[in-house]
Amino acid sequence: MDVPSALPEHIKQLIPGVDSWNKWRSGDTNIRPVLCGYSFTDLDIRDLTGLNLSQADLRNCNFGDISFRGANFKNADLRGAEMLNANWEGAIFDYANMQGQTLVKMKFQNCSFENTNLTGACLKDSSFIRAKFPGAIFTDACLERADFRGSILQNSKLIRTNLKEAKLDPSPPDDSNPNFQITDLRSASLSEAQLHQCSLYKVNAWQVNFFAADLKGANLTEATLTNAKFEGTKIDYKTNLRNIRFSDHAAMDDFSEMIIPGRWDRYISWSKLSFIMRIPLFGVSWSILIGLVTGINVVTWINQRVEANQNIELLAISCLKSTPISEYIPHSIVLLRPIPIPHSIPMLLIGILFLAFGSAFYKFGCPDRIQEETETHWVESLNLPRLQYMEKNYSRRIYQGLTCLFFTIGASISIFLFAKKLLPALFYSIRTCWKIVLMLFQ
């Protein structure tokens, strides 16, 4: 569609300044200014605070580095306008058409975007702290790392919107607002939205539609999700679901069924590791470890004493060759010999050490909820939400990894020693029994 040129008579009204322009606009409310392609940098004025540009056609305009604080752009057409360097704090963009706009790394604090059309807009890394977006349209927009803390997004449409790493936490307090302001997402549509690693801490998401949305790695701590719809929603163990608020436990259970396990979640979790710990591995492994270390030290000490006595014996032999040794050295000392330590003992000690450390990582890393209850007992007997159990089941991944690693190494060493020492003895016993059976039937 062809874009008309700016009308000279409208530019003439703008040159004197904000007061003259606003007076002219208030005199005839039917005027729709046409300033398409106009560069506001041509004006001698750099402060256009409070300028009334409602219903104006501002396509392809260049706003330069001018201040438009509190300016009124209601129902304005801003498609293709250059807005990157201007000051927009507190500006009003209600019902404006900003479709396809590129607004990267910009600040729109306390602005109003009620029912604004931002379809396909790129708002990467921009700040919208305490901005108002009721009914705004963000379909197919890119909001990566955008800051919406304390904003109102009630009834807004964020269909297929990319909100990766965006912030929707409560707004930080400042001089104008000394209290934290919760981000309002009530009744918003986030179907098919990309919310990967998005921060939704404490947001009010009442009746929000998360159909097929990607919430993997998102932070939903203390979010209000009453009557929210999660059909096809994607979440994983990195999704923070701590203290979320639902209308009932059933909703939490339905939500827990939508968790998509990560790459290793199918194989490693606290509930799977708890099967290994059903035996008292912590006490047994540490007891064996302490016993082995103590035994090795005792045997080493005895061997040292024996070697010392043997040195005395050799000295006596060399000095008193014609005299019986028993006349100078006690008979018990002569008979003592060093106690041999099997070569497999050090390897066994290493294996027990790994098992002991693995059991320690489990004991101190696994949440008490997992150690004390099974998931079935938690849900069916205690009638508690499954989601709370799953949250703990996939927590403290470093401890899980270390537990699994140490268990694997310790078990491998133990199996190796078993195969090397015990299996040959077992095979020998079986072979001997078989020979005896053959002899009996001959």
**Helix/strand/pairing category:** mainly alpha
What is the helical fraction, as a range of percent? 25-40%
The number of distinct structural domains comes to 3
CATH fold node name of the largest domain: Pectate Lyase C-like
Number of helices: 11
Percent of residues in β-strands: under 5%
Spatial separation of the terminal alpha carbons: 106 Å
The largest sheet, given as strand count, sense and whether it forms a barrel, is: none
Poorly predicted tracts of residues: 331-335
CATH superfamily of the largest domain: E3 ubiquitin-protein ligase SopA
Q: Which CATH architecture of the largest domain is right?
A: 3 Solenoid
CATH class of the largest domain: Mainly Beta
What is Rg? 38 Å
Order of helices and strands: HHHHHHHHHHH
Which shape, going by the Cα principal axes? Answer: elongated
Number of strands: 0
Mean pLDDT: 79
Task: Explain how this protein is built.
With 442 residues, this protein is mainly α. It folds into 3 domains: 1-64 and 72-91, no CATH class; 98-260, 3 Solenoid (Pectate Lyase C-like), CATH 2.160.20.80; 281-365 and 396-441, no CATH class. 37% of the residues lie in helices and 0% in strands. The chain is built from 11 helices and no strands. The chain has helices at 8-14, 18-27, 249-256, 270-276, 281-319, 331-335, 344-365, 368-372, 375-381, 386-393, 397-441. Helix 5 packs antiparallel against helix 7 (344-365). It is elongated, with a radius of gyration of 38 Å. The N and C termini lie far apart (106 Å).
